[in-house]
Specification:
Strand order of the largest sheet: 3-2-1-4-5-6-7
Shape: globular
Bound molecules: nicotinamide-adenine-dinucleotide
Strand content: 5-15%
Structural class: alpha/beta
Number of domains: 1
Order of helices and strands: EHEHEHEHEHHEHHHE
Radius of gyration: 17 Å
CATH class: Alpha Beta
CATH superfamily: NAD(P)-binding Rossmann-like Domain
């Protein structure tokens, strides 16, 4: 029996990287998946095809998670097509680097608005129908940088620490009403986001990582499947860390 048979999932930022991996893994486990991304439909074509190869329905919705009207339209399209969303994965995220003293205020706003406000907006727009049914899962893709900080990433670390705080606070609000909220805080995972790092950073990080290599998307997706499925029914407000030992809490 597949772990997510008959479930409807919505994954933000699902056109690429970790989000695309989670969307495909959910489809493999039997879920229909809404692929919500700011990237155009052509960029999402590969993940849509992967979902359909697993015999599940895919719906691409062009979405900017930081924009209230766009998120409202996303939720409406998802509900119109599938009738409900059982699993929300707040994965859309961006990453830039600069020392705080030089950080353009627009950079701070863009990163926080995407990573934190975007997760709030998507949750705000979809949690009502979960609470009405007394059934739902929300998985927030944070980062280990939200747990331990990092040089030149104050905005990113703050957004991800905020997302972990949101996860805990919301988990306390809604667990007894059937909605379980948890976070995943990956370490360095090979995706286009990691490609933006300098050679020097990559070499230093590789030397430092207990496991001696970067992670793959396929090493993150099982944690998302766990938290989305009945196997994860006793996880509440937790932050799970597929991180190669980079952070040990
Ligand atoms: N790759 C890593 O090492 C790593 C580590 C820890 C956490 N993360 C987190 O994992 C998540 C996914 O990252 P990734 O590595 O797969 O990156 P990625 O760049 O491959 O994918 C991010 C996706 O989000 C989409 N996106 C960006 N802004 C958006 C917006 N405003 N609205 C809708 N979609 C938007 C992009 O179009 C893209 O498809 C992010 O939240 C990131 O912070 C990544």
């Amino acid at each position: 029996m597949s772990k997510l048979e008959g479930r409807v999932a919505l994954v933000t930022g699902a056109a690429s990287g970790i989000g695309a991996g989670i969307a495909a893994a959910f489809a493999r486990e039997g879920a229909d998946v809404v692929v919500a991304d700011k990237a155009p439909a052509e960029a999402a074509a590969r993940v849509v095809a992967a979902i359909e190869r697993h015999g599940r329905a895919a719906l691409y919705v062009h979405t900017d998670v930081s924009d209230e009207a766009s998120v409202r339209a996303m939720a409406e399209q998802a509900i119109a097509r599938f009738g409900r969303v059982d699993i929300l994965v707040n994965n859309a995220g961006i990453f830039t680097e600069s020392l705080l003293e030089d950080m353009p205020i627009e950079d701070w706003d863009r990163v926080v608005n995407t990573n934190l406000r975007g997760s709030f907006l998507c949750t705000r727009m979809l949690i009502g129908q979960m609470l009405e049914r007394g059934d739902g899962r929300i998985i927030n893709i944070a980062s280990q940088l939200g747990q331990v900080g990092g040089d030149s990433v104050a905005h990113y670390s703050a957004s991800k620490a905020g997302l972990i705080g949101l996860t805990k606070a919301l988990a306390r609000e809604v667990s007894r009403r059937g909605v379980l909220v948890n976070a995943i805080a990956p370490g360095p995972i090979q995706t286009p986001l990691l490609d933006s790092e300098t050679e020097e950073w990559r070499n230093n990080k590789l030397a430092d990582l207990p496991i001696g290599r970067f992670g793959t998307v396929d090493e993150v997706t099982p944690t998302a499947v766990l938290l989305a499925s009945s196997d994860g029914s006793y996880y509440v407000g937790q932050t799970l860390g597929p991180n190669g030992g980079d952070v040990m809490l």
